[in-house]
Request: fold
Amino acid sequence: MATEQVPIVTAAEAAAEATEKAVAHLAIDDAVFTPKEMSTTTDDVPAHRSHDPDNNAKRTDPFMFGQRFLTQEDDVFEYNAWDHVETDDAFKEYAEKQYELQRNAPVSDFDKSRFNSDPAKWWNMFYKNNTANFFKDRKWLHQEFPILTQICEPDAGPKTILEIGAGAGNTAFPILARNKNPLLRIHACDFSKTAVEVMRTDAAYDTKHMQADVWDAAGTGDDSMPPGLGPASVDVAILVFIFSALSPSQWKQAVENVARLVKPGGTVCFRDYGRGDLAQVRFRKGRYLEENFYIRGDGTRVYFFDKDELIKIWTGKAERIETPSEGDQVTKEALAEETQTSWSEDEAPFVLEDMGVDRRLIVNRAMKLKMYRCWLQGRFRRK
Reply:
């Protein structure tokens, strides 16, 4: 699965329409700005601000998420993006007003049934309409998840990757292109039949190393495992912007299915939307399904996760790791109650390796607009 190409809006209501027109080309799901994609206005800049490969600070921690820090002395519009930027008071106030408006104008009961009863229909329509222009090469994968480089080495031995929510092959094909391991197998699965057809007809589709199939990650019974894979057969499972497309009622089943497939000691690589991301704040009336869960204009669904909520879903462990922002006070007890589809820490099949909050301030320098983004990225290890 993948998300639609959503226009981004500014926190100021007065500038909303102008912003949508100016930045409608940005794709929300892959808005990961790696160093080479951002440019500077001067050749003589500090290493942590430079994106010249000969003059920039090298990342050693994949969860560092960039090193361009915004200080009080900086001109926020000097660069296209800043890392680790908390939202300002104006945006927080705007966001709270938006959430209230969303709750007061939810999706109708008729539409809620229509969108939830057959989600595959909407993803098929999405890929039918976006086949030609929505493939994005996720070149950042190997930097963010070094294990993908390791298992692609010539001497890595027999390894199996399962990509869940493969879409048009945005993850599978870049891995395949860089692979040097003759014994690597990539199983790329998606909920959408149309998406799978797109992958199978791609010139890069190589059945020696890759198999694309239709599979519902939250399937039950005979449908709980994808074709060609058995229990404990997967070394690395990849879920990039797919878990958010599931209904909260499907989370536990999906985690159980992944756990059944991944070998003990195997890894789940995860990236998805964080709570308070601009994509959430921008939703208008008639899109609210339930708290933090929305319907996009194309009929596909999206959820925005809290960091601790996500950790509990996968590991059963609920604790406040970072100080909650104003308006988002979540206690351990409340979090445990909210995540009712989860399990206890002893019962959970995964343990947490890393979980990072990737916060970016994206800047439109021409229009003097600021756009706050938030993603969650983590790794879980199978017990």
Summary: The radius of gyration is 20 Å. Residues 355 and 378 are 4 Å apart (CA to CA). Confidence is low (pLDDT under 50) at residues 1-43, 55-59, 321-337.
